[in-house]
Amino acid sequence: MNMEMNNEPQWDDAKPFRDSNGQRVVDVVAYVEQWQNAHGNGRVFVGTDSKVKGPWVKYSTVICLWDVGKGVREIYRSFVFKNPKDRFSRLWNEVMMSVQVAEKLQHLGSIHVHMDYNSNPKFPSYSLYDAGMGLVNSMGFIGAGKPQSWAATSGANRRCQ
């Protein structure tokens, strides 16, 4: 999917999620639902991170399926877009990508949305923390920012490098 600068990224079923072996996940909703049925105590987390690479930015979104006490299964997808002109737009795109994925899964139960925004005012991403948490929580998701947002800061971060 090619995006023009400053356009809001959209859910794109043509851009597949992949599992940790690189295998395409054909139906993300069915995949998560089957996983939930097999892991009754499991929890679903969505997070996005980005990495600027010259005039481009790579965004990676992960869905982390945490089988409490047993580990995490992760599926992911990545996009490359023109780099927005400012940090605010790039970081806001991250939360919007996570929310778009979480909306597709919302009917399956509680969805945690992890944001790569710092809760500490000493960091630049703090300027978006309250807005991001407000958006995520108002949509019925369970929001978290740094340092509790491991799906974004670990899972998605690893995929966008």
Give the terminus-to-terminus CA distance: 19 Å
Q: Hey, roughly how much beta strand do the residues contain? A: 25-35%
Q: Which stretches are poorly predicted, pLDDT < 50 over at least 5 residues?
A: 1-8
Number of domains: 1
Task: Tell me roughly what share of residues is in helical segments.
Answer: 25-40%
Shape annotation: globular
Look at the helices and sheets and give the structural class: alpha/beta
Overall radius of gyration: 15 Å
What does this structure look like?
The chain has 161 residues and is α/β, with parallel strands linked by helices. The protein has one domain: Nucleotidyltransferase, domain 5. It contains 4 helices and 7 strands, in the order ββαβββαβαβα. The chain has helices at 28-38, 87-105, 129-138, 150-159; strands at 17-19, 24-25, 43-53, 56-67, 71-82, 111-118, 142-146. The chain has a 7-stranded mixed β-sheet with strand order 2-1-5-4-3-6-7, sandwiched between helices.
Short recap of the structure:
The chain has 161 residues and is an alpha/beta fold. It has helices at residues 28-38, 87-105, 129-138, 150-159; strands at residues 17-19, 24-25, 43-53, 56-67, 71-82, 111-118, 142-146. Helix 3 links the parallel strand 6 (111-118) and strand 7.
Keywords:
31% helix; 7 strands; 4 helices; 161 residues; 33% strand; disordered N terminus; Nucleotidyltransferase, domain 5; alpha/beta
Write the layout of secondary structure elements.
Elements: E1 17-19, E2 24-25, H1 28-38, E3 43-53, E4 56-67, E5 71-82, H2 87-105, E6 111-118, H3 129-138, E7 142-146, H4 150-159
Parallel strand pairs: 3-6, 6-7
Antiparallel strand pairs: 1-2, 1-5, 3-4, 4-5
